[in-house]
C-alpha cells in the first residue's frame, strides 16, 4: 500500500489510464500550464503534451460540448470543472446531451466521458460556490454519479469510470484534496461502480454517508461508542447506481438508520435512501429514519454560520441517539 493524498490518487488514476489508452485525454480550465487549480494534474502536461492535457477558455458549455463530441467519435475525454458549481453553465450538455446520446441514437453513438472536479461546500466561498450537486445529477437517467470519500476509492473508482462506456459525474471535495490515505499498489487497481463499502460494522444503528460526510459519520460512531452504542457506517461510494441492498441488509440488522447528506434536504440523496429503505424494509425499522443535512437555505459566508450550516458530528450523534430512543 502506498500513502497518497487524494489529489495524487486521482492523478495516478488519470495517468495510468492515459498511459494505457491513447484515446483518453484531460481537458479543462488550468489543467495544463498551471498544473491544475488544485494541482491534481500536476506534471501531466510535461508527460503527455498539449494534445492530451488541454487548457480551455472559461467556457464550460463549450468545452463540455466539445468533450461530448469527442466521446461520440470514439475518444474518452476527462472533463475537469474547476468547481461543480461551474458545471451549471454546461447543464444542457451534461444532463441533456451526454446521458441521452446512446438511447436517442438507438445505440449508434456512445458517450464514454467523465465529468470530474470538486463538489460541495469548501469553507467561505458563498452560496454560489457551495452547492452539493449529487442529488441533482442523480435525477437524470443515463448518468452515473460517483462520490468517493478517500484516496483508495478515488483511484479505483476513477479508473473504472474512465473505462466505462456511459457518461459519469465524478464528484470530489476541495477540502479533501490534501487528505492522505493508503492506496492499493495492486497493478491496474479497479473498484466496481455501484458497490457500497461497509466502513465500520456495528449492531445498534446504521449511518449512511458519502464524500466528506463519511468522515463526520466515522467520528460520530467513535463518540457513540464512548456512550456504549455500536454504529455501523456505510459509504455508498456510488450515488447512482445506488447499492441499496447493502444498506437494507444493515438496517435489517440494526433496525435504525441515520443518513448524512450535504445536499439540500428537499429531494436529496438522503431523501432517496430514506424512501427506498422504508419501501423495502419498513417492518425492520424500530424508529423513523432521520436525516442530517444542511438547512434548506443558501450557504452562508460567515465562518461561524458555515459551521452551523454543515452536517456535524454533534448533530449525527443526536440523531443516532434519537432513533435509539436514548434522548428526546
TrEMBL record:
Pfam families cross-referenced by the UniProt entry: Transket_pyr (PF02779), Transketolase_C (PF02780)
Keyword rRNA-binding part of the UniProt annotation: no
Listed SUPFAM superfamilies: Thiamin diphosphate-binding fold (THDP-binding), TK C-terminal domain-like
CDD domains, per database record: TPP_PYR_E1-PDHc-beta_like
Keyword annotations: Oxidoreductase, Pyruvate, Thiamine pyrophosphate
SMART domains xref list: Transket_pyr
Gene3D superfamilies attached to this UniProt entry: 3.40.50.920, 3.40.50.970
Residue ranges constituting the Transketolase-like pyrimidine-binding domain according to the UniProt record: 4-179
InterPro entries named among the record's database cross-references: THDP-binding, Transketo_C/PFOR_II, Transketolase-like_Pyr-bd, Transketolase_C
Superkingdom of origin organism: Bacteria
A single MF term (Gene Ontology): oxidoreductase activity
CC cofactor: thiamine diphosphate
Entry annotated with the keyword Oxidoreductase: yes
Protein's UniProt name: Pyruvate dehydrogenase complex E1 component subunit beta
Amino acid at each position: 500500500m502506498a500513502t497518497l493524498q487524494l489529489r495524487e490518487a486521482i492523478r495516478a488514476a488519470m495517468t495510468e489510464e492515459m498511459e494505457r489508452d491513447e484515446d483518453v485525454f484531460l481537458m479543462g480550465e488550468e489543467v495544463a500550464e498551471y498544473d491544475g487549480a488544485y494541482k491534481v494534474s500536476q506534471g501531466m502536461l510535461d508527460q503527455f503534451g498539449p494534445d492530451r492535457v488541454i487548457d480551455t477558455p472559461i467556457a464550460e458549455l463549450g468545452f463540455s460540448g466539445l468533450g461530448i463530441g469527442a466521446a461520440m467519435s470514439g475518444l474518452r475525454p476527462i472533463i475537469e470543472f474547476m468547481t461543480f458549481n461551474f458545471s451549471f453553465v454546461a447543464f444542457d450538455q451534461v444532463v441533456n446531451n451526454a446521458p441521452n446520446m446512446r438511447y436517442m441514437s438507438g445505440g449508434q453513438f456512445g458517450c464514454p466521458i467523465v465529468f470530474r472536479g470538486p463538489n460541495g461546500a469548501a469553507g467561505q466561498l458563498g452560496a454560489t460556490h457551495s452547492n452539493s450537486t449529487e442529488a441533482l445529477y442523480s435525477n437524470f437517467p443515463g448518468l452515473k454519479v460517483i462520490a468517493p470519500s478517500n484516496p483508495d476509492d478515488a483511484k479505483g473508482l476513477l479508473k473504472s469510470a474512465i473505462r466505462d462506456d456511459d457518461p459519469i459525474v465524478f464528484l470530489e471535495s476541495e477540502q479533501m484534496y490534501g487528505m492522505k490515505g493508503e492506496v492499493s499498489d495492486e497493478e491496474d487497481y479497479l473498484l466496481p461502480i455501484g458497490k457500497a463499502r461497509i466502513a465500520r460494522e456495528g449492531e445498534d444503528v446504521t449511518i449512511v454517508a458519502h464524500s466528506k460526510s463519511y468522515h463526520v459519520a466515522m467520528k460520530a460512531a467513535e463518540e457513540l461508542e464512548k456512550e456504549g452504542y455500536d454504529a455501523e457506517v456505510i459509504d455508498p461510494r456510488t450515488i447512482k447506481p445506488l447499492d441499496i441492498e447493502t444498506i437494507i441488509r444493515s438496517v435489517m440488522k440494526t433496525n435504525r438508520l441515520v443518513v448524512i447528506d450535504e445536499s439540500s434536504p428537499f429531494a436529496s440523496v438522503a431523501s432517496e435512501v430514506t424512501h427506498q429503505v422504508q419501501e423495502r424494509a419498513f417492518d425492520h425499522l424500530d424508529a423513523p429514519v432521520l436525516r442530517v443535512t444542511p438547512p434548506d437555505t443558501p450557504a452562508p459566508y460567515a465562518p461561524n454560520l458555515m459551521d452551523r450550516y454543515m452536517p456535524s458530528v454533534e448533530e449525527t450523534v443526536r440523531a443516532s441517539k434519537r432513533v435509539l430512543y436514548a434522548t428526546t
